[in-house]
Design a protein that fits this description.
The protein is an alpha/beta fold. It is about 30% helix and about 15% strand. It contains three helices and five strands. The protein has a five-stranded mixed β-sheet. α3 links the parallel β4 and β5. The longest helix has 17 residues.
Length: about 140
């Protein structure tokens, strides 16, 4: 379809419909539909059975890293100053390359303390870090 421009001979008006704005509106509606369609999925509500809480099997490749309410850091029940934590974790990683850290943080602990501990773990090369929570 070629676009025609009015000339002095034609009388000035075009008799064709400009479909460009219509296509623009349709594309916007298509994008809106594509974005909102996944959000409209229905969730099936299931009542899960209650079970007794069990302790996980002991693993020799796990170390417990805890942050207390006062901001103290404990690695396997041994208090470690925060500046020395990275070195301790590097030594632990060198002794056991398969080590994974379970991070326990007191609910009253400041997020800043927990974030510093997580950053130290990352800088030390620990790539397996999990958070441990208590069921209420």
């Amino acid at each position: 379809m070629a676009m025609q421009f009015p000339s002095e001979e034609d009388g000035g008006e075009m008799s064709e419909i400009n479909v460009t704005p219509l296509v623009d509106v349709m594309l916007v509606l298509l994008v809106v539909f594509i974005v909102t369609a996944p959000l409209l999925t229905q969730v099936v509500k299931v009542k899960l059975p209650k079970t007794e809480q069990t302790e996980p099997a002991p693993d020799k490749h796990v170390a417990i890293l805890a942050v207390t309410a006062g901001g103290e850091v404990q690695l396997d029940d041994k208090t470690i100053p925060l500046p020395n934590l990275e070195g301790e974790l590097k030594a632990l990683q060198e002794r056991d390359p398969e080590i994974s850290i379970q991070l326990q943080a007191d609910r009253a602990a400041l997020f800043e303390s927990v974030a510093k501990v997580m950053a130290s773990a990352q800088r030390s090369g620990i790539d397996k870090l999990s958070f441990v929570t208590v069921a209420q």
